[in-house]
Fold this sequence. Notes:
The protein is an alpha+beta fold and 413 residues long. 29% of the residues lie in helices and 25% in strands.
Amino acid sequence: MKTLAIIGGGAAGLAAAVEAARESRRRSARMEITVYEASDRVGKSILATGNGRCNLSNSAIDAAVYRNAEFVREAYRALPPEKVRSSFADLGLVMREEAEGRIYPLTNKATSVLDVLRFAIRESGVRESCGTEVVAVTPVEERFLVCFADGGTVFADAVILACGGGPAQSLLPPAYPYAGVLPVLGPLKTDVAPIKGLNNIRVRCEVSLYGRPCESGDKAAGRRKALPSPSLKACEAGEVLFRDYGVSGIAIFDLSRFAEAGDVLSLDLVPETSEDALAADLSLRVERFGSRGAVELLSGMLLAPVARAVCASIGMRADDPVARGRTADLACAVKSFRLEVRGAGDVRQCQVSRGGFEVAPFSPDTMESRLHAGLYVVGEALDIDAPCGGYNLHWAWTSGALAGRAAAGRCAP
Length: 413
Ligand SMILES: Cc1cc2nc3c(=O)[nH]c(=O)nc-3n(C[C@H](O)[C@H](O)[C@H](O)COP(=O)(O)OP(=O)(O)OC[C@H]3O[C@@H](n4cnc5c(N)ncnc54)[C@H](O)[C@@H]3O)c2cc1C
């Protein structure tokens, strides 16, 4: 009987197992499928997703938002997003759509997603070998020697490497180029002086990420030059959470995919109002509440600690009344509160790893290696990542299912 070894029982590995079993049934082929999982049980990574709710897909999956978008586009052509979702429905999962197309299980529990996958593989006779860490996969003639951390080995006719985003370079021969992994989709460390006293405060705003310091204007005078658009790397709207080391929140997570130390985040704290309209509004406030200090002048618009930080960013004293001539400066500071990026924040909170096996040696419609037929790499083990919103899990399901189907086809007589 032909054997398929799936290395890693996370999202992509379980999707691969389900699809391989389904395809071998369809072809009436007898095949032994084993999932080798390093931890004590499969699917733990799925349980942690979406704050335990598992944002498993998105109704508007778009290959363009992924790293290595062309490769992903081909894969989604081979297995369209709606087919992945209907496969889950076939397994019994009822899903609902929330804001921005995010798809969750109706139960709001990641366990429901894992349960339907586990029941499907159990009913198909897929073996689970937990507590089994794979350390190397070596092509030997037409087959693969799989080596385990405890010194054991097995031969397999096909191997699907679904080991996730951790360092995995040593698992495959050196012929497979590997981009070093970097945690992304997480908080960012920034200079902390401008956000002193803001820990745990949330603001809804628009955040732009600039690739280099974006102005050289006279800070004391407060007025800054317009931002040069060519250095704009990315822009996101949403909630930002100030932390004592920097910033967090979904908008920041998404920007973290593009951020490097030395970049600048510019927060527009009143995105619905243009800078000119805001300056006019502030002038009116000066007319009406002229005796108020700067922070009080901004009350009703910004939380007091945030207003204090904004005023400090242009050297304006919090308790002093705002001079008529400085309302434009204040409006500018509210519309572009700047923080310099120092690097990734708490890496334990990062949701994906940038990097992994480069996609060039693999076929996007099957995930099969062009160098060694019968070897497949899927999910986050490849150098593919995407923003928050269900895109990363959707990639794991799709790439896993494509590989599972192709591996079963290869093993069929
Ligand atoms: C906190 C958190 C929340 C997230 N929320 C979402 C979300 O809501 N929506 C979304 O789309 N994405 C989310 N993600 C990202 C998503 O979880 C991953 O993109 C996805 O799980 C990747 O699937 P994978 O199968 O490639 O890797 P994983 O799911 O990480 O699975 C890899 C598996 O391989 C095992 N393994 C590793 N090395 C070996 C080895 N050498 N031998 C044997 N087994 C091995 C691991 O133990 C693991 O079980 C989140 C990530 C995190 C960390």
